[in-house]
Amino acid sequence: MISDFFRVAWHVMRKDLTVEVRSKEVLLTTLFFAVSVVLVFSFAIVREGRAPDDVAAGILWVAVSFSGTLAMGRTFERERYNDTLRALLLAPSDRPAIYTGKLLGLLVLLALVEMVLVPLVGLLFNAPVLAFPGTLAALLVLGTVGFSAVGTLFAAMLVRVRSRDTLLPVLLYPITIPVMIAGVRGTAALFQETPDLPMAQFWIGLLIVWDAIFITLALWTFEPVMTE
Amino acid sequence: MTKLNPLLIGLSAVMLGAAPWMIDRAPYESTMGLVQKVFYFHFPSAILFLVAALICGVASAIFLFGKRPRADGWAIAAAELGLLFGSLTLVTGPLWARKAWGVWWVWDPRLTSSLLLWMIFSAYLLLRRYGGPGSDKLGAGMALFGMANVPFIYVSVNVWRTLHPQTSVVPTLPTDMGLPLWYCFAAFTMLFIALLNLRARLEHQRARVEALYLAEDEA
Fold it and tell me: With bands split at pLDDT 50, 70 and 90, how would you rate the model's confidence at A48?
């Protein structure tokens, strides 16, 4: 049973990534959007080559959440446009496995985006991104998982709803602000002049709790909300 | 239940009308003085704000997993009341904070999470208003996530050191302050129950009218 679950999730993820490798639509647009967000912030905030202290962490996470929202909307828009969501849901498999596959595909895309975003933020805002690579990676991974777990569920549910493009951020941001607070505070603890490692680890612990709650709730609700 | 509504509304109207006298007769708090009296309205609205979140979440879970369409009416009613009592909480809180802490607002965990819950209610109602067909299930999912935030709000004040008074303050109040507090709490709760009842009934009737229209279209 468990192996079946992950086999289906793996296939859904591979399908999404294959489509993505061929078209590169979501990756390129999301990446470009994320870079523009960071650039807009640097034009607005950096004065005479110096950014104010403590802004780098916030800007990194704003860019992640904005571009993440864009990517989420697009991955399900493709299913709606080609009317393949019904085919996907008709597959004789667990619905939560389909959700997991979609989530994993999104996470791979966002990981690629973050690999560009982190050095860019380090460069433009003088953030010490290489000081604690492991801790920073843990914060980014856990934060992105929590954010995407809710986002994938909401994007899937919004496929059938009017004005889905405006409603996704409206619903997503209030719910995921706890994750954003933990991510931003943890990253800021690493980026400050005297890094505060125990503080960053405290926020990592909190992120693990939130991720567990959000993933459990999402797996639990995906089945009933996707049933017509 | 419907016969109870006028009684509840009348009683809470009389009690709320008399509340200023009750609050006036309560003694002044030694350090905060007059402004502490906003607490008699702040506390009941804050508790009912959380109760509304719980009702909305539980009703949504029943709607989603138990497939009972009527539960959705209770969820909408609770969400609207949550927004109402949440707004009361968020307006009376800063009035007090300005005097007690010297600022209108601080990003303390409890204040932050109350504001978040208020935003979740707003987003839920925006979805129900503008989402169109299919938004009821999505709203129920959203409400479940909103309910997951409630224990976070309640516990947060005790875990992190904050400016907000601890939750143990209320049972230890002296009687002459505790009496008007529970009096106001009773009045607010009756108002809450009556409004919840009326709003849910309205929603059920609306759903019924819709079903009748659909049936006539098919006939």
Answer: confident
Residues 83-112 of B with CB under 8 A from A: 112
What's the DSSP call for residue B108? -
Within an 8 Å CB–CB cutoff, is residue B162 touching chain A?
no
Indicate whether B197 belongs to any domain: yes
- Which residue type does B136 have? D
Nearest-angstrom CA–CA distance, B47 and B36? 17
Residue position matching structure tokens 């967000």:
A37
Residue B179 CA to residue A30 CA, distance in Å, equals: 58
Q: What backbone torsions phi and psi does residue A50 show, to the nearest 5 degrees?
A: -125, 130
Arithmetic mean of pLDDT, A90-109: 90
Q: How far is A45 from chain B (nearest CA, A)?
A: 23
- Whether the CA torsion B101, B103, B109, B114 is positive or negative: it is positive
pLDDT of residue B74: 93
Task: Quick: pLDDT tens for B161-190.
Answer: 556 666 666 666 676 777 888 888 888 998
CB contact under 8 A, A154 and B141: yes
Q: Kindly determine whether residue B116 and residue A171, on different chains, have CB atoms separated by under 8 Å.
A: no
Tally of structural domains, chain B: 1
Instruction: Tell me the two tokens of residue B52.
Output: 């509304």
What's phi and psi for A83, nearest 5 deg?
55, 40
Is B28 inside any structural domain?
no
Sequence-distant (≥ 6) Cβ neighbours of residue B189 within 8 angstroms: B44, B48
Other C-beta atoms lying within 10 Å of the C-beta of residue B202 = 13
Confidence at residue A146, expressed as pLDDT on a 0 to 100 scale: 93
Length of chain B: 219
Q: Is it the case that residue A95 has pLDDT exceeding 70? A: yes
